[in-house]
Amino acid sequence: MTTADEAHVVPLNDLIEHDTEGDCVCVPEARPVTRDDGSIAWLMVHHSLDGRETSEQLQ
């Protein structure tokens, strides 16, 4: 997979700097995204290590 085939969403001001070049310790979720031409790209959604997803979902 090339960098043109993926985009990363990373939490800002987290406990770590997330690795978008290799294996990130947060174990990002890979979500397939269909492009206009029908090909598939990947949206890599990184998880925070400070647990903010828990409080954000409750709001």
Explained architecture:
This protein is an alpha+beta fold and 59 residues long. It has one domain (3-58). 12% of the residues lie in helices and 27% in strands. It contains 1 helix and 3 strands. A hairpin with a 5-residue loop joins strand 2 and strand 3. The chain is globular, with a radius of gyration of 13 Å. The termini are far apart.
Topology:
Layout: E1 6-9, E2 29-34, E3 40-45, H1 52-58
Parallel strand pairs: 1-3
Antiparallel strand pairs: 2-3
Short description:
The chain is α+β, with helices and mostly antiparallel strands. It is built from one helix and three strands; from the N terminus they run βββα.
The radius of gyration is 13 Å
Structural class, judged by helices and strands? alpha+beta
Through-space gap between termini = 36 Å
Oligomer: single chain
Number of domains: 1
Widest sheet: strand ordering: 1-3-2
Helical content class: 10-25%
Strands, total number: 3
**Number of helix segments?**
1
Shape: globular
Mean pLDDT: 90
Question: What key phrases describe this protein's structure?
Answer:
three-stranded mixed beta sheet, globular, alpha+beta, about 25% strand, 3 strands
